[in-house]
Amino acid sequence: MFRKVLIANRGEIALRVQQACRELGIRTVAVYSEADAGAPHARAADEAVLIGPPPARQSYLDADRILEAARATGAEAIHPGYGFLSENAGFARRCREAGIVFIGPQAEAIESMGSKAAARDLMRKAGVPVVPGSPGPTGSLDEAKKIAADVGYPVFVKASGGGGGIGMQLVRDDAGLDKVFEGARSRAESLFGDASVYIEKCLPGPRHVEFQVFGDARGNIVHLFERECSIQRRHQKVIEETPSTALTPELRKQMGEAAVRAAAAVDYVNAGTIEFLVDADRNFYFIEMNTRLQVEHPVTEVTCGVDLVHLQLRVAAGELLPFSQDAIKPSGHAIEFRIYAENPAKNFMPSPGTISKWKTPEGEGVRVDSGVGEGSVVSVHYDPLLAKLIVSGASREEAVLRALVALEGYVVEGIHTNIDLHKEVLRHPEFRAGEFDTGFLYNRLKPQGS
Questions:
Q1: Is 207-445 assigned to CATH 3.30.470.20?
Q2: Residues with catalytic annotation?
Q3: In sequence order, what are the residues at sequence separation of 6 or more whose Cβ sits closer than 8 angstroms to the Cβ of residue 358?
Q4: 213-235 pLDDT tens trace
Q5: Is this structure's pTM higher than 0.85?
Q6: CATH architecture of 4-103
């Protein structure tokens, strides 16, 4: 096992990885920007290294500074968390060349799944169903129009290098495609350094369901069942739960097997997630793979009884998976709520500022993964995720009722949050019945300003 690990991230995920390292007897190195001097993740580590000014490109995205910090502190491995450099194949490769273990998949797997258009073609060849659309990157407006006509409007124009809902636009006709196509290419180049885009059919009323996968260096790959991720704003997840109310036992089996095939197609090692859409007729389609740990990993941990960060560290250190597929027996129900510093009444605008009061809930089946505290400054430079509330119970109804109590127990002052919106979702009859899709938040709750 490693003696020292550098965590190339901040906030709640950095603290989460630090906790796992402590439990395994591993010393930790935090990195922090000038904006995060004194932040909880920097204070909690065994060592902390300043890596630059507040802008992420000059700090948390600066591979040179992070590798320099790892060498200077004698860290044997780097855990990238999620976001920042976690899905950067070039960074994973540079770690390997420097003799530092990247705690995640190999660079080649990140590259294979990093281009969403290329990944679609790879999955099709592996026998994994994909959403109708481009066979690969779409090179011209005329080609895009032909594909859109073949699959039928509406369609999404998506950036090949995008993910998490970033770099995608909905188009309803040829005129709309005329307006957005070149702009989508320019935006993709600006955001991801890759101007290629592809066309994907917009399925009516889909559910977004992902499967957690895990592989080791001997080629063993398992899935740890699904997470329902359909409660979204701006195509980004807000509430996740497991198990999904959309899946029958047979569909769950088919999707789990497809997820393992998808991971095996790139000889996947460590934690990853295969993301699917499920339509109203319970057909499922691959949309992308996230080659990292997910924000919502705790609901899987709670129901499967597996610490995924422990497992990441062990597999990265050369250990084999300690269980087979048949040994994974999930039980109960778990729901995660992302607590954001944002104002749902103003189209979910971020709400930076100083947290003047911060009180988190406690109780049976309640877990809080937090990256802030009273007095913390929420910066304009980073994602506004403050914490994650994870609530579990023997049944979905028990988890929902516990979650309502837990959300009432949150006290946050000094900034806006989305806590009240979470309560609205939980009280809605369609959510309580387990009957909702990716449009639920906007079509049912209709947040002001959206």
A1: yes
A2: 292
A3: 372, 373, 374, 376, 411, 412, 413
A4: 999 999 999 999 999 999 999 88
A5: yes
A6: 3-Layer(aba) Sandwich (3.40)
